[in-house]
Each structure stands twice: as C-alpha cells, then as structure tokens.
Amino acid sequence: MADQLINQLLWPIIYILCITVPLIIAVAMFVYWERKVIGWMHVRLGPSKIGPFGLLQAFADVVKLLIKEVILPTKANRFLYFMAPLLALIPALAAWAVIPFSSKMVLSNANAGVLYLLAMTSLGVYGIIIAGWASNSRYALLGAMRSAAQVISYELAMGLCLVCVLVLAGSLNLTDIVNAQAGGKGLFDWFWLPLLPVFVIYFISGVAETNRAPFDVAEGESEIVAGFHVEYSGSAFAIFFLAEYANMILVSFLASILFLGGWLSPLQGWIHVDAPAWINWIWTGSWAWLFIKAFVMSFLFLWFRATFPRYRYDQIMRLGWKVLIPIAIVWVMVAGCMKFFGWVSIGVGA
Amino acid sequence: MNPQLFQLICFYAFGFVTVAAALSVITLKNTVHAVLALVLTFFSAACLWMLIDAEFLALALIVVYVGAVMVLFLFVVMMLDIDQEKMREGFVKFLPVGLIVAAAMLVEMLGLIGVRAMHAQAMGANPATAAGLSNTAWLGQALYTKFLLPFEIAALILTVGVVAAVALTLRTRGDARYESASQQVKVNPRDRVRIVKMAAERPVDETPAPPQESTP
C-alpha cells in the first residue's frame, strides 16, 4: 500500500515539481534577459544595479510584487477576481505535462498530446476574460474583449498548422512527432522545410496567442492603460505575469518540437564518430538541443517586441482571418499531397 | 489501491461535480456565474469521457465547447445589462412548465434506455483497444473509411450553416467607408511625398531685416 502510494502519488508530484520549479525560475531569468536584450537594442544598459550584471533584478522584482498590497476594486466580483489569475496560470503550467524534453524524458507520454495542448491553451483565455469582467473596470473589460477575440481567431490558424504537422507525422504523440523528423539529412529532415509557410504562421499565431508585441492590443498601454490586468496589483499581477511568460516559453518549446526536430541534432546523420557522451550529444541529439532551439525561438519574441510597432485591431483580424488561415488551409492539402506521394521522408526508416 | 477502485472513485467524484455544476447553472443568480458553472459541467463531463478512454471526444469537447463556444457565450452574457431581481420573478410561475418539460425528457431518456435494454446490446469491449489502436487513431480510421459519406455530409451541412450565418449578418451600408488594406499596401510613395534634391545653402543672415514698409 505504502509502496503503491509512493509510486503512484509521490513520484509524479516530484516529477511535476522538477518541471514547474525550473520553469518559474526560467520565467524570472527570461524577464531579466528580455529587459537586457531590449535595452541593448535601444542602446541602453538594461537592468545593471542589483547583483552581478543586474542578474538578481528579476528576483528583487518578485519580492517587491509579493510584499505589495493586493487591492480589490469597489464592486468587483470578489470570488472571480481572485480566481482569474489562477485560471490563467493553471493551463499555462498544465500544458507542460506532455512536452518531451528528450526521447525518454517526458512526464506524460500521452497519445493525444497535441490535442491536450490545444485544449490547455484554449483554456487560458478564461483567466483573461474573467479578470476583465470581475475587476469592474472599463479598461479591463475592453482589454479582455480584445484579447479573447484575438486568441480565438489565431487559435484557428494555429490548429490548422498543427494539422499539417499531424498529417506528416501521422501521430498526435509529441514524441512520435519528433521521431518522425529523424533522418540522415541533418536539419533538412525536420518539418520546417516542407512546412515552411506553416512554421512561420505557427509562430506568428503563437505570438498573437500570448498577446505579445506586435499583437499586444490587449494590453495597449497607450490606449487602455494595461488591459485586462489593470486593476491587479501585487502577487495577483505577478501570477498573470508568470502565466504570460510561461506561455511564451511553451510556444517556443512547441515550435522547436513540432518544426525544429525537438531534441534531435541538426547534424544528425552527418557525423558518425564514437565520442564520450559529453561530446556525443552534439550529433546524436539530447535535451540540450531542445533547450538551445527554444532559447533561439524565445529570443524572437523579444526581437519582435523591440522591432515592430503595434498592430491596429482591424489589422490583426485581417491578418488572422484573411491571410494566415487561407494559407494554412492550402498547406494542409499540400501536406496531404506530400504524405500521399511520399515527397518527404518520415522517420529514420524511410 | 487497485486501479479499478481508483477509477470508480474518480467516476463518482467527476460525476458529482458534473451534476452539482449542472444544477448550479439553473439555480445561480448571477448569469456570468451560471455560464461558468456550465463551463465546469462540460469540463467534468470531458473528464468522465476520459475515464472510459474516449480521449478524442473528451479533448474535442474541451477545445470546441469550453475553449471556443463558451467563450463567445460568456462574452454575450457579460455584455447583457439585465436586472437580476427581475430575472428571478417568474421562477414560480414557470416552474410547472419546466417540470413538465423535465418529466417529458426523463421519460424519453428512460424509454430510450429501456428500448436499448430490450435489444440486449450490452456495451461490447472498447473497439479501439480491441483493434490495438489509440482511441484517436481508431476513430479517425472509422470516420474516414466506414463512415466517410455521413462524415462528408455532416461537413457539408456545417459549411452551409456557416455560409447562411455569414449571409444573414453581412449587411453593408451604402454610405459606410472602409479602409482597403490591399489598396493601402499598393500605394506608391511617389504619389504622396515629393523628394526635392538641392544643393546645400548657406543660411541667410541670422537676424532678419525688419520688414520694409511697403506703400500700398
């Protein structure tokens, strides 16, 4: 009994903590990295005072947010007001359950992994809408409406991109999807090449889904102050912040897994040398490659933010519905043809 | 704890949440709360389906209903400006009608279950596990081979519905003005801005001469 309890309850909880705790720390470091990178792009220094190179800035911010007072606006709906940050955070963390970090390292090797991810990302919008409604503020409600309309629109484009990947990989399991990108042609075996337009659309939709610049009308500082979380302060705001950045990192990981071969090495099949394990991973692939790819993808989020001016609301809708979705639909058929006529090699055997 | 007992406990827990949430949909005063209770009902129903290995159906329910349909529903309800007290007034008046509808539905459902029981078609083994496939793969194979025609017809009907909905709501006023993004993109900068090239000039004397009196 005790053995079973440990096996079925304790170990999963430890595994979950092994994913979420580093994720939360990664969010803190990512915020620091974002401020630093954008500072450099603006020819400023960025955070530089706290700790060496300002490295402890993020932690100082966390402590500051946690000891601030949480304010409840008058006539706000108390229960929903405090539920909303949790509803935003839970799906953002739960989605990580199916992410495979390497061929063996995965918390839940679910068969319907991609569907699960879609379900979790579509739940995240509730936190935003409820926050906007429950805080009894015009700005917050406007931000929530913008955000929800945007998330629903871009979810369609994102879903169609996933369909292309599924058609080629022939599986909903994320580990199988990565294995389908293995082969002897190095990085040209990954899905970014046959699905190049879809890869671009996927990442644009990912940026839009996380409400990041240039799609950040939901926050729109110059128009509606801060959007759906304008009334939140202290730790409640920190939770929204955490959810947004966890989602950004998630999109970066997903783009790496679905299109950039996950943990596979870009040199796969080119180098056949027996080296010690600490060198071997460079061409046999390991979790380190996934982290490198995700780091590069997440850097794009910051680069976009420092480069592009904000879209207008109608431009966002036009881009989503009239440009991205039609291209994605066409590419679903192209992917079907690729699979049917065998134009792309799937997996090592082919 | 054996897995079956665990599954049973999970079933009762999710079932309880489903029923409780469904009841609160019709009893809660605040309409937004009621919609959220409906979301919870869908979610726990999806969990129940997950328990019987119907993973595709469960996740599709969450993606489609919880993730999209209910979000739009929540929108509409949030925008409504209704007097909550007035909404409660007719409760007793409409109670008999509601009870009759509920009773009719109960009889129908019991009848359906009874007819099924007479056919004595006990639920067979899960066909997906029997075929050694995952639920999603089996469903996909069944839909695209055995039930291809009904599937395509259903898709066609849905498309017609979408077209009809767009046609019903697409109204344009004659005097409305729109921006055409394609025209905006096609604009030639030379039509808008004239770039003048000229040699650099020395500035004219710093202090301008006082305007000369001009005799009209």
Please render the helix and strand layout as text.
The complex is a heterodimer of chains A (350) and B (216).
Chain A: H1 2-41, H2 57-67, H3 78-94, H4 113-134, H5 138-169, H6 174-179, H7 196-209, H8 221-224, H9 234-259, H10 277-284, H11 287-307, H12 313-341
Helix pairs in contact in A: 1-2, 1-9, 1-11, 2-9, 3-4, 3-9, 4-5, 5-7, 5-12, 7-9, 7-12, 9-11
Chain B: H1 3-27, H2 31-51, H3 55-79, H4 84-89, H5 91-119, H6 127-130, H7 135-146, H8 148-169, H9 181-186, H10 189-192
Secondary-structure content class of chain A: mainly alpha
Largest interface here, residues on each chain?
A: A-B, 29 and 26 residues
Choose one word for the global shape of chain A: globular
Low-confidence sequence ranges of chain B = none
How would you describe the shape of chain B?
elongated
SSE topology string of chain A: HHHHHHHHHHHH
What's the rounded overall pLDDT mean of chain A? 85
Structure description:
The complex is a heterodimer of chains A (350) and B (216). Chain A has helices at 2-41, 57-67, 78-94, 113-134, 138-169, 174-179, 196-209, 221-224, 234-259, 277-284, 287-307, 313-341. Chain A is 66% helix and 0% strand. The model of chain A has no long low-confidence stretch (mean pLDDT 85). Chain A is globular and about 65 Å long. Chain B has 216 residues and is mainly alpha-helical. In chain B, helix 1 packs antiparallel against helix 2 (31-51). The mean pLDDT of chain B is 82. The chains are: A mainly alpha (350), B mainly alpha (216). Chain A binds chain B through residues 1, 4-5, 8, 77, 80, 110-112, 115-116, 118-119, 122-123, 125-126, 129-130, 133, 141, 145, 148, 152, 155, 172, 314-315, 318, and chain B through 1, 30, 32-33, 36, 39, 55-56, 59-60, 62-63, 66-68, 71-72, 74-75, 78, 134-137, 179, 181.
